[in-house]
Known about the structure:
single chain; alpha+beta; Arc Repressor Mutant, subunit A; 2 domains; five-stranded antiparallel sheet
Amino acid sequence: MQQFPLSALQRQRMASACLFSDALFGAVALRFAPGEAVCTAGQPLPYLLLVLSGRAKASVLAENGRELLLCFTQAGDLIGDLELMLGTVTAETSIRAMTDVVCAGVPLARNRDALRSNPAFLNYVGAALAGKLKNSTANCSHIILYPLETRLCAYIAATARAGVFAEPLTETADLIGTSYRHLLRALEQLASQGLIERAGRGRYRIADPAALSARGKGLYAGGKPARD
Protein backbone atom coordinates (compact mmCIF):
# COMPACT_ATOMS: atom_id res chain seq x y z
CA MET A 1 0.00 0.00 0.00
CA GLN A 2 1.26 3.45 -0.94
CA GLN A 3 0.02 6.66 0.64
CA PHE A 4 -0.26 10.06 -1.07
CA PRO A 5 -1.80 13.47 -0.35
CA LEU A 6 -5.26 13.88 -1.82
CA SER A 7 -5.48 15.82 -5.07
CA ALA A 8 -8.14 18.44 -5.69
CA LEU A 9 -9.97 16.05 -8.03
CA GLN A 10 -9.90 13.27 -5.43
CA ARG A 11 -11.35 15.65 -2.85
CA GLN A 12 -14.16 16.44 -5.28
CA ARG A 13 -14.80 12.71 -5.75
CA MET A 14 -15.02 12.38 -1.96
CA ALA A 15 -17.50 15.26 -1.78
CA SER A 16 -19.74 13.45 -4.28
CA ALA A 17 -20.01 10.69 -1.64
CA CYS A 18 -20.74 13.32 1.05
CA LEU A 19 -17.24 12.92 2.47
CA PHE A 20 -15.93 16.45 2.94
CA SER A 21 -12.19 16.24 3.51
CA ASP A 22 -11.96 19.64 5.19
CA ALA A 23 -14.19 18.36 7.99
CA LEU A 24 -12.27 15.08 8.43
CA PHE A 25 -8.96 14.31 10.12
CA GLY A 26 -6.09 12.70 8.24
CA ALA A 27 -7.78 11.84 4.93
CA VAL A 28 -5.27 10.51 2.37
CA ALA A 29 -5.08 8.77 -1.00
CA LEU A 30 -4.08 5.09 -0.89
CA ARG A 31 -2.93 2.89 -3.77
CA PHE A 32 -3.06 -0.92 -3.76
CA ALA A 33 -1.21 -3.02 -6.33
CA PRO A 34 -2.89 -5.92 -8.17
CA GLY A 35 -3.08 -8.93 -5.85
CA GLU A 36 -2.56 -6.82 -2.72
CA ALA A 37 -4.98 -7.14 0.19
CA VAL A 38 -7.07 -4.02 0.66
CA CYS A 39 -8.36 -5.50 3.92
CA THR A 40 -8.40 -8.94 5.53
CA ALA A 41 -11.26 -10.41 7.55
CA GLY A 42 -10.49 -10.36 11.26
CA GLN A 43 -7.60 -7.90 10.87
CA PRO A 44 -7.65 -4.22 11.92
CA LEU A 45 -9.36 -1.88 9.46
CA PRO A 46 -7.81 1.56 10.00
CA TYR A 47 -9.58 3.40 7.18
CA LEU A 48 -12.99 3.90 5.70
CA LEU A 49 -12.20 3.68 1.98
CA LEU A 50 -13.94 5.24 -0.99
CA VAL A 51 -12.82 3.47 -4.17
CA LEU A 52 -11.74 6.09 -6.71
CA SER A 53 -10.47 3.78 -9.45
CA GLY A 54 -9.70 0.13 -10.08
CA ARG A 55 -11.47 -3.10 -9.25
CA ALA A 56 -11.26 -5.58 -6.38
CA LYS A 57 -13.06 -8.73 -5.25
CA ALA A 58 -14.63 -9.25 -1.85
CA SER A 59 -14.89 -12.66 -0.20
CA VAL A 60 -15.79 -14.19 3.15
CA LEU A 61 -13.92 -17.02 4.88
CA ALA A 62 -16.00 -19.97 6.11
CA GLU A 63 -15.22 -22.00 9.23
CA ASN A 64 -13.92 -24.83 7.04
CA GLY A 65 -11.22 -22.52 5.68
CA ARG A 66 -12.77 -22.02 2.25
CA GLU A 67 -13.56 -18.63 0.73
CA LEU A 68 -16.79 -17.59 -0.96
CA LEU A 69 -17.04 -14.77 -3.48
CA LEU A 70 -19.38 -11.99 -2.35
CA CYS A 71 -19.04 -9.29 -4.98
CA PHE A 72 -16.68 -7.10 -6.98
CA THR A 73 -15.96 -3.52 -6.00
CA GLN A 74 -15.18 -0.58 -8.26
CA ALA A 75 -15.19 3.21 -8.38
CA GLY A 76 -17.73 4.81 -6.06
CA ASP A 77 -17.96 1.85 -3.70
CA LEU A 78 -17.25 2.08 0.02
CA ILE A 79 -15.06 -0.28 2.02
CA GLY A 80 -15.50 -0.18 5.78
CA ASP A 81 -19.09 1.10 5.76
CA LEU A 82 -20.37 -2.09 7.42
CA GLU A 83 -17.70 -1.86 10.11
CA LEU A 84 -18.49 1.83 10.64
CA MET A 85 -22.14 1.08 11.30
CA LEU A 86 -21.39 -1.97 13.46
CA GLY A 87 -18.86 -0.02 15.51
CA THR A 88 -16.19 -2.70 14.98
CA VAL A 89 -12.46 -2.16 14.41
CA THR A 90 -11.67 -5.28 12.35
CA ALA A 91 -12.70 -6.10 8.80
CA GLU A 92 -15.74 -8.32 8.27
CA THR A 93 -14.66 -9.44 4.79
CA SER A 94 -11.47 -9.83 2.78
CA ILE A 95 -10.94 -7.61 -0.25
CA ARG A 96 -8.09 -8.07 -2.73
CA ALA A 97 -7.15 -5.72 -5.57
CA MET A 98 -7.55 -7.14 -9.07
CA THR A 99 -6.08 -4.07 -10.78
CA ASP A 100 -4.34 -1.00 -9.40
CA VAL A 101 -6.88 0.32 -6.89
CA VAL A 102 -6.82 3.91 -5.67
CA CYS A 103 -8.95 4.89 -2.68
CA ALA A 104 -9.59 7.92 -0.54
CA GLY A 105 -8.90 6.78 3.02
CA VAL A 106 -10.53 8.33 6.09
CA PRO A 107 -9.07 7.17 9.45
CA LEU A 108 -11.95 5.46 11.23
CA ALA A 109 -10.80 5.92 14.82
CA ARG A 110 -10.47 9.70 14.50
CA ASN A 111 -13.55 10.29 12.36
CA ARG A 112 -16.12 7.71 13.45
CA ASP A 113 -18.32 10.19 15.35
CA ALA A 114 -18.18 12.79 12.57
CA LEU A 115 -19.10 10.21 9.94
CA ARG A 116 -22.00 8.81 11.93
CA SER A 117 -23.41 12.28 12.59
CA ASN A 118 -23.45 13.23 8.90
CA PRO A 119 -27.00 12.50 7.61
CA ALA A 120 -26.09 12.92 3.93
CA PHE A 121 -23.21 10.48 4.24
CA LEU A 122 -25.37 8.00 6.15
CA ASN A 123 -27.85 8.06 3.26
CA TYR A 124 -24.94 7.24 0.92
CA VAL A 125 -23.89 4.41 3.25
CA GLY A 126 -27.43 3.04 3.34
CA ALA A 127 -27.59 2.89 -0.45
CA ALA A 128 -24.12 1.31 -0.60
CA LEU A 129 -25.01 -1.40 1.92
CA ALA A 130 -28.26 -2.15 0.10
CA GLY A 131 -26.32 -2.59 -3.15
CA LYS A 132 -23.83 -4.91 -1.50
CA LEU A 133 -26.61 -7.00 -0.01
CA LYS A 134 -28.26 -7.30 -3.41
CA ASN A 135 -25.03 -8.32 -5.16
CA SER A 136 -23.82 -10.75 -2.49
CA THR A 137 -27.24 -12.38 -2.30
CA ALA A 138 -27.26 -12.78 -6.07
CA ASN A 139 -23.73 -14.25 -6.11
CA CYS A 140 -24.56 -16.73 -3.35
CA SER A 141 -27.71 -17.81 -5.19
CA HIS A 142 -25.64 -18.32 -8.35
CA ILE A 143 -23.53 -20.90 -6.54
CA ILE A 144 -26.64 -22.80 -5.47
CA LEU A 145 -28.78 -22.47 -8.59
CA TYR A 146 -26.39 -22.40 -11.57
CA PRO A 147 -24.15 -25.23 -12.86
CA LEU A 148 -20.38 -25.06 -12.49
CA GLU A 149 -19.81 -24.32 -16.18
CA THR A 150 -21.99 -21.19 -16.00
CA ARG A 151 -20.29 -19.94 -12.83
CA LEU A 152 -16.83 -20.59 -14.24
CA CYS A 153 -17.51 -18.83 -17.54
CA ALA A 154 -18.89 -15.83 -15.66
CA TYR A 155 -15.92 -15.72 -13.28
CA ILE A 156 -13.40 -15.94 -16.13
CA ALA A 157 -15.19 -13.13 -17.98
CA ALA A 158 -15.27 -10.98 -14.82
CA THR A 159 -11.63 -11.43 -13.79
CA ALA A 160 -9.68 -11.78 -17.05
CA ARG A 161 -7.35 -8.94 -17.96
CA ALA A 162 -6.40 -8.23 -21.56
CA GLY A 163 -8.20 -11.44 -22.52
CA VAL A 164 -6.16 -13.66 -20.19
CA PHE A 165 -7.48 -15.47 -17.11
CA ALA A 166 -4.67 -15.93 -14.58
CA GLU A 167 -6.41 -16.13 -11.20
CA PRO A 168 -5.00 -18.75 -8.77
CA LEU A 169 -6.93 -21.93 -9.49
CA THR A 170 -7.21 -23.15 -5.89
CA GLU A 171 -8.64 -19.78 -4.91
CA THR A 172 -10.95 -19.78 -7.92
CA ALA A 173 -12.35 -23.18 -6.94
CA ASP A 174 -13.22 -21.91 -3.47
CA LEU A 175 -14.69 -18.63 -4.64
CA ILE A 176 -17.10 -20.21 -7.12
CA GLY A 177 -18.02 -23.08 -4.80
CA THR A 178 -16.38 -26.17 -6.31
CA SER A 179 -13.40 -28.47 -5.82
CA TYR A 180 -10.03 -28.04 -7.49
CA ARG A 181 -10.49 -31.33 -9.36
CA HIS A 182 -13.88 -30.33 -10.73
CA LEU A 183 -12.49 -26.94 -11.71
CA LEU A 184 -9.72 -28.53 -13.78
CA ARG A 185 -12.24 -30.74 -15.54
CA ALA A 186 -14.44 -27.75 -16.34
CA LEU A 187 -11.47 -25.79 -17.71
CA GLU A 188 -10.51 -28.72 -19.92
CA GLN A 189 -14.06 -28.92 -21.21
CA LEU A 190 -14.16 -25.21 -22.05
CA ALA A 191 -10.83 -25.59 -23.85
CA SER A 192 -12.11 -28.56 -25.86
CA GLN A 193 -15.13 -26.46 -26.89
CA GLY A 194 -12.89 -23.64 -28.13
CA LEU A 195 -13.93 -21.04 -25.57
CA ILE A 196 -10.51 -20.80 -23.93
CA GLU A 197 -6.99 -22.02 -24.67
CA ARG A 198 -3.95 -22.63 -22.51
CA ALA A 199 -1.52 -19.72 -22.27
CA GLY A 200 1.04 -21.16 -19.87
CA ARG A 201 0.94 -22.71 -16.43
CA GLY A 202 -2.35 -21.79 -14.74
CA ARG A 203 -3.16 -19.22 -17.44
CA TYR A 204 -5.89 -19.33 -20.08
CA ARG A 205 -6.55 -17.04 -23.01
CA ILE A 206 -10.17 -16.35 -23.91
CA ALA A 207 -10.54 -17.63 -27.46
CA ASP A 208 -14.22 -16.78 -27.94
CA PRO A 209 -15.23 -13.86 -25.66
CA ALA A 210 -18.79 -13.61 -26.97
CA ALA A 211 -19.51 -17.30 -26.44
CA LEU A 212 -17.87 -17.27 -23.00
CA SER A 213 -19.94 -14.28 -21.86
CA ALA A 214 -23.12 -15.83 -23.21
CA ARG A 215 -22.37 -19.08 -21.41
CA GLY A 216 -21.76 -17.12 -18.18
CA LYS A 217 -25.17 -15.41 -18.40
CA GLY A 218 -23.79 -12.19 -16.89
CA LEU A 219 -23.31 -13.69 -13.42
CA TYR A 220 -20.95 -11.88 -11.01
CA ALA A 221 -21.38 -8.65 -12.96
CA GLY A 222 -23.65 -7.10 -10.32
CA GLY A 223 -25.07 -4.82 -12.98
CA LYS A 224 -21.68 -3.14 -13.43
CA PRO A 225 -19.19 -3.71 -16.24
CA ALA A 226 -15.66 -4.76 -15.42
CA ARG A 227 -13.13 -1.95 -15.50
CA ASP A 228 -9.35 -2.23 -15.66
